[in-house]
Amino acid sequence: MKENDSLKQINPPKQSQRTHLHEIDFMRIFFTFGVLFNHTVNKFTLAMSQSETYYTVRTLRVMFHYTRMGFIFISGVVLTLTYFNRNDWPAFFKKRFNGSLWPYLTWNGLLMLLMIALGSTDYNFSNFGNKYLTLVMHGSSFYMYYMLLVMQLYLLFPLVVWIFKK
């Protein structure tokens, strides 16, 4: 046995890290900008009168709806690539929900308080609890629906992995 071979047995080569897929980073950025464009156009058209221009802008905006589904798909791909061969689901849930549930709850509350401070007629202290619960359960304000959707994906993800492995 050569000396070099014996050194390999004593100090085996380290397993390489997973390859970083820059293509996924590009797709996440691409879809993110598409979603932001869509939401920005929505805010502008709310301020427009219903004219030919309004309908033209709303029609053009529909072309970018694929970015929402694309972003959700890419999120699922990243989850699958990262966690497919891991089976520590309690650690998965702890990491995923600590990174999304608390910010989701906090931002809904802070944005509601900001809307009250700005004098929005849709938000007030008299029904804060009920309105907050409705917003959190439905993700229906402040474009928070994606966070709610992702947390639902997290809940189903172990089942999806199990199905694919079977």
From TrEMBL:
Keyword Transmembrane helix: yes
Acyltransferase domain location: 22-166
UniProt keywords, alphabetically: Cell membrane, Membrane, Transmembrane, Transmembrane helix
Cell location: Cell membrane
Gene Ontology terms, MF aspect: O-acetyltransferase activity
Topology term for the membrane: Multi-pass membrane protein
Residue spans crossing the bilayer: 26-46, 66-84, 105-123, 143-164
Pfam families: Acyl_transf_3
One GO term describing the cellular component: plasma membrane
GO biological process, one term: enterobacterial common antigen biosynthetic process
Alphabetized InterPro entries for the sequence: Acyl_transf_3_dom (IPR002656)
Family per record: Belongs to the acyltransferase 3 family.
Protein's recorded name: Acyltransferase 3 domain-containing protein
Organism: Oenococcus oeni AWRIB429
Source organism phylogeny: Bacteria, Bacillati, Bacillota, Bacilli, Lactobacillales
